Amino acid sequence: KTEAIKTGTGTGVFVGSVPLTTTQSGSSFQLKDGTRGGQYTTDMGNRTTGNGTLFSKSSDTWGNGQASNRESAAVDAQYGAAATWDFYKNTFGRSGIRNDGAGAFSRVHYDTGYVNAFWDDDCFCMTYGDGDGDTHPLTELDVAGHEMSHGVTSATANLNYSGESGGLNEATSDIFGNAVEFYANLPKDNPDYLVGELIDINGNGTPLRYMDKPSKDGRSADSWYSGVGNLDVHYSSGVANHFFYLLAEGSGAKVINGVSYNSPTANNVTVTGIGRDKALQIWYKALTSFMTSTTTFAQARTATESAATALYGAGSPELIAVGTAWAGVNVGT
Ligand code: ASN
Ligand code: ZN
């Protein structure tokens, strides 16, 4: 059959109405993107094995915004993979998760009542559950960016997923996941420093994590202490999430896109932010050039200082801000 690259329209649960790059194959359309490494989305049919069935139909209009329509979560997933691709390409010049031009596929409707989403290096694929009661898919953009960034970490620093390096691994995913949300800048998913604020995983409308003050979730660390590496990696991540927020936005109270933040610091430090764009360049350079599988928070400070020196110069205000932000989370003071 003749294949052609098309532009369809989708309405996701969380992304709202968005354009999607699709494939026409003969008389049918597929949720497959020939412009970004062939990324596609499949329906797992609530199974946990196999790779599901490619979304395919006779028109190029997908989903209706309701979770009960099986295409809606697929629209979110397909858009999330595209936005993540574009974010890495246009921000860092990275071509796909492994920087080899290969696209990752996404699997939706995994299992029943599955309240998680995960990246898997082996299938080179993304998987989403439908959440509690199969009515709350985990397909928000910052989750998509978070999970696929686990693939980027695997392909680069390969931070071990336990202890302090595990916290850095998780923080890397939160940092880049939220950056994908800022990159896409969708009216229906206001960019913020909250993780998973739309998926209502707690059932009371609160986000999963807060980067300005990680302890707002009741469990995450705001700053480093001896033994922070014994926390679950989703809570020790707070140290580096908080560092990143401070570096980008600075300490104290701030309103960004209508969301109020108030970021405290350790050691009575005042941090002046250098902006999200520079903070992202520093984190990416540190991850891809200076961190290793066993990097600790103290070594992450050195890695980001090396990155800031390489990018902005010795004695640059950016380098000084990196040190101040780490001091604000009690690392290396
Ligand atoms: N959603 C989880 C995460 O990315 C999956 C896991 O436990 N790795 O952190
Ligand atoms: Zn994660």
From TrEMBL:
Residues 38-50 have a biased composition (Polar residues). Residues 25-50 are annotated as: Disordered. Belongs to the peptidase M4 family. This is M4 family metallopeptidase. The chain holds residues 201 to 533 of 778 of the full protein.
